[in-house]
Specification:
By secondary structure, this protein is an all-alpha fold. The chain has 2 helices and no strands. The protein has one domain. The two termini are 17 Å apart.
């Protein structure tokens, strides 16, 4: 594996982890703000983030 490929995948993994972390944090804070007993936004926002990231990966990889 070339060094450029390694950096590309490392950047992608970092972006995935950071996006999920931010989505979980925002969902957790929002659920606490609205005083909901069920963590609806804590579950929903990371799922939306994952779907959008996978779509972005698909679009980026299909242009090669």
């Amino acid at each position: 594996m070339r060094n450029n490929d390694l950096l590309k995948y490392a950047g992608l993994a970092t972006q995935l982890i950071a996006t999920l972390g931010v989505a979980i944090f925002i969902g957790f804070k929002s659920d606490n703000y609205f005083h909901w007993k069920f963590p609806l936004l804590t579950i929903t926002l990371p799922l939306i983030a994952l779907i959008s990231l996978f779509y972005k990966i698909y679009k980026d990889s299909s242009n090669i």
